[in-house]
Amino acid sequence: QVQLVESGGGLVQPGGSLRLSCAASGFTFSSYAMNWYRQAPGRERELVAGIDTVGGSTNYAVSVEDRFAGSRDNAKNAVYLQMNSLKPEDTGVYSCSVRLRDRRYWGQGTQVTVSS
After folding, report:
1. What percent of the chain clears pLDDT 70, i.e. is strictly above it?
2. pLDDT tens digits, one per residue of 35-76
């Protein structure tokens, strides 16, 4: 079965950095684009980054495009999100996701809190 397991979240001060990881299994990882989403309290889930099958092209939300960098390692079935210059408004639960055929799968998410 498809499994997505995120890690790397935590509490960080404004201006700090975090690197999120997502370990994938249960599908042919290298054949599918991967996405990172986030959801802040009281807000709808937002697409943060989309990473193509080889990691050569990544699309970002406007709010993060100069600060976040998505990547993947197909040999390790893992996708990453490097987050720099974090702001309080980046606080939320970050989840990786993949769409297989007609269904989207989600990890359980990892909490990122940006606060002084």
Report:
1. 98
2. 999 999 899 999 999 999 887 678 788 888 889 999 999 999
β-pair type (10-12, 110-114)? parallel
H, E, C per residue of 13-67: CCCCCEEEEEEEECCCHHHCCEEEEEECCCCCCEEEEEECCCCCCEEECCCCCCC
Rounded Cα–Cα distance for residues 32 and 27 (Å): 9
Please state, in angstroms and rounded to a whole number, the distance separating the CA atoms of residues 55 and 46: 20
CB 33 within 8 A of CB 52: yes
For residue 77, the 8-state DSSP code is: T
CA distance 3 to 60: 24
Report pLDDT for 63: 87
